[in-house]
Amino acid sequence: MGVHCSKFFFCCGHSHLKPSLHDLSDLENGGENEKNALPSFTEFSLDVLMIATDGFSADNIVSEHGEKAPNVVYKGLLQNGHSIAVKRFNRSAWPDSRQFLDEAKAVGNLRSERLANLLGCCCEGDQRLLVAEFMPNDTLAKHLFHWESEPMKWAMRLRVAFYLAQALEYCCSKGRAIYHDLNAYRILFDQDGDPRLSCFGLMKNSRDGKSYSTNLAFTPPEYMRTGRVTAESVVYSFGTMLLDLLSGKHIPPSHALDLIRVKNFSTLMDSCLEGRISNDDGTELVRLATRSLQYEARERPNAKSLVNSLMTIQKETEVPSHVLLGIRHGTATPPQPLLLTTTGEACLRMDLTALHEILQKTGYKDDEGIANELSFQMWTNQMQETLNSKQQGDAAFRAKDSITAIECYTQFNDGGTMVSPTIYARRCLCYLMSDMAQEALGDAMQAQVISPEWPTAFYLQSVALFSLGMENDAQEALKQATKLEAKRNKN
């Protein structure tokens, strides 16, 4: 549907989508039906939440983070039949019970159909728990990065961006402009398939305000300098979300901006969307992402302007979200069993010796000609030096001399005449063997940028993420690798 038709639907109010937040009555209190359904903020007893989650059973864990952000989210069922999500903080996160309660109540006063709303909390002894609406249809990360049958439709991606901008504007209008660690795992889908922003991110992970548990490549630059989250930092994170929606990958902003500067949009865009979007729509999302990712915080747009821009490019506005998302109305997507390959099992065990043998056996066959594109330059001294670095690195890699291999592969990469995802993969493993997990993750992500459909890049990302204590992200990377390998074996 064209832009003019979309505007007509918004103006006349006949669309499945709600109008923008200029009319807050449609979003505040979740609309009339949800206003009646949602209770006011409640202080739950620990006994009630113990019963609801079967004693915080491991079977009810729906998301879990490692030791860098030690909190766990459980699915629960209240005696009145309402499904809930319960976030349980570690014992040292909020020692001041009054501070925790005040913060939770402030977030609990928000009510919007763009949020997975906070229903209450529990603050008994040293226990600190938050209780929110349960969203049954998984996260944006699941539907965007780890889809089973078909990729997310372009119209749905635009709707996610629009609803997310609306959620952020609503929060800003209520004095809650700060959102901690905005990412694809924070966007949840309700029973209608509508995307909602998790309320958990409106509270700090703890009283010290440590917020960014994701890779530093995605962290707002000012956070690196000050350690503080600002409203402008949230817009920067929104920009990384736009990149996710455009590319279908969790691509580092620096790499994406480099592609945008040289107008290499085809590499940036999700290949699954080829021929399904107009140049104008893609260009507008690229423009909004670029503005949101400005290095200087003051040069980024605010949430209201993002809502206005995204409203004009919505597509298929009369189609319900559950149809666009490809799910049955009112039901959750059934979990799919994950059958790990030999490489996947090695990653789960973090068996670096087995991974070394696998990479050594595979060699460079997965480079698919990338490393040989400039072979006609063999006669130049620079090319010969580059190849010598590669050969010396390979010899060190075979001998498991990680330090020498890292040095030689770094010289190869710095030469700039050739790119090889295999060399990034090999250096990644050497970093892992040297207990340099952050550097290893950077190399695994670089290998993915060069070869987006290469399972090995995702396998290595999973090991690096496991090493960093980022359990949930690691499991998702492992799922993606398994899916890509199964797809490759079919062809």
From TrEMBL:
Any one cellular component term from GO for this entry?
Answer: plasma membrane
Stated membrane topology is: Lipid-anchor
The Enzyme Commission number assigned here is 2.7.11.1
Q: What class of enzyme is it?
A: transferase
Limits of the Protein kinase domain: 59-325
Classification via SUPFAM superfamilies: Protein kinase-like (PK-like), TPR-like
Task: Give the UniProt subcellular location, in the record's own words.
Answer: Cell membrane
Task: Give the primary localization class.
Answer: membrane
Per the record, what are the reactions this protein catalyses?
L-threonyl-[protein] + ATP = O-phospho-L-threonyl-[protein] + ADP + H(+); L-seryl-[protein] + ATP = O-phospho-L-seryl-[protein] + ADP + H(+)
GO MF, any single term: ATP binding
Domain of life of the native organism: Eukaryota
One GO BP annotation here? brassinosteroid mediated signaling pathway
Sorted alphabetically, which keywords does the UniProt record give?
ATP-binding, Brassinosteroid signaling pathway, Cell membrane, Kinase, Lipoprotein, Membrane, Myristate, Nucleotide-binding, Serine/threonine-protein kinase, Transferase
Similarity section: Belongs to the protein kinase superfamily. Ser/Thr protein kinase family.
Q: What is this protein called?
A: non-specific serine/threonine protein kinase
Encoding gene per record? LOC104241509
